[in-house]
Amino acid sequence: MIFPPNQIDYSNIICNFAASNFIVYVREYMTTYFEKLSAGITSFSDFICGYPMFLLLIGGGLILFCYSRAVSIRRIGHSIKALAHSESSGEGQISSFQALMSAIASTVGMGNIAGVAIAITVGGPGAIFWMWVSAIVGMSTKFFEGALAIMYKGHDSAGQPQGGVMYILEEGLGKRWRPLAIFFAIVGLIGTLCVMQANQLVESVTTVFTTPMGIENTLGLRFIMGMIIAVIVGCVVIGGIKRISVISSKIVPVMVGCYMLLVLAIILLNLDKIPGVIASIFHSAFSFEAGLGGFIGTALTGARRAAYVNEAGVGTASMMHGASRNDNPIREGLIAMIGPAIDSGLVCTLTALPILIADDYASSEGVKGLYIALRSFEHLLPGYGQYLLMAMVFFFAFSTMFSYSYYGLKCTGYLFGAHRAKYYNYFYLVMIVVAAMVPLGVAVAVMDLAFAFMAVPTMIALLSLAPRVKKLMKEYFK
To answer: Which helix (H) or strand (E) holds 304?
Structure first.
């Protein structure tokens, strides 16, 4: 209604003004509240996933390393022999080789590229030496995970044999540990959503390809890319563990082999720099030039990054190796411990060498792992180096997303029944699209916390049941 100048409805204007101010106030309050909540979650995640998780995984791994009398060093030859004769007729869906390749597919990912670059930036070249040490410790942890996954298989609601920390706790330690098994499955559903891999894959593509072409990085573009990623992943994961294992057993050897050839080409072009690079790794690893604190910082940075990469002690590998048809726990444990040797040992070294050869890993804009790696490869192979590395990133990210879906599927089946587990895959694919569009921040912090919480029941199970594994070890090697 239009009022004459002397008949203005002041009460309506005041009400509208008050309502608009209230909406603005609520919006500002909610924004501030969520910013504080996000900051709180991130800070808590940084604390838990820092030294507490380092002490749990590396400290627990050292105990298992010593208790097994350095199984990861003394029995590496037996591991190769066990892998060569990995076929067996026990309960399960896949072979031990397929289980190993699928487990490696889940761990060889963005951490092997971005994580290594971050470790070098923060801890210097010496961080790589301590990554090697952490890999040896992680191999011992994976040995016990693989062995216990076969020793204490359970059965889902459909009667199918299954492995994982949930069943190790229930079958190995007793039904009274079921609450801890349920806790593991719940946090496992969150920790294996692959939000970081999907988000960083989209970020990498936009940085290297679309942005230089003048295509604006809009929400719509990220949605389309997320849909493409989800379709590709869906074609594999909907087929279940057998299709995942078949694809992984083919893609993992190829992608690791191609990465080796790429780095070998860089090494051959820079042979004169290799002695200096190797010397810098060992010199920095044991250097006290920055004092005792600098030495400890270098060691902790490298070891912690390797622990995140190989996931030893987190419990994911037990679910994959629990699907193996291997009927000998020790043989499966020997095969399982090859995983950290490849992901934290070989692949991380392949990333580290070009970065150290390029000697351009300082960053004035904060720690940007993937950017530093791309810059190093481009510097060493001008014109196409970053594109070749991007191809590796593409395969690494997808291989991780394939295997992680299986882990979430197993957690869902344990919690809600095998007949409902299939619905998890659709949720998983939707979350890939969401991950492609949202900022990373809090989502990654929540998933890091989930991984840390997964490690608690896993290490409790491994340390508690280690004597039973050692008894079988004596019989096996006798």
So the answer is: helix 291-310
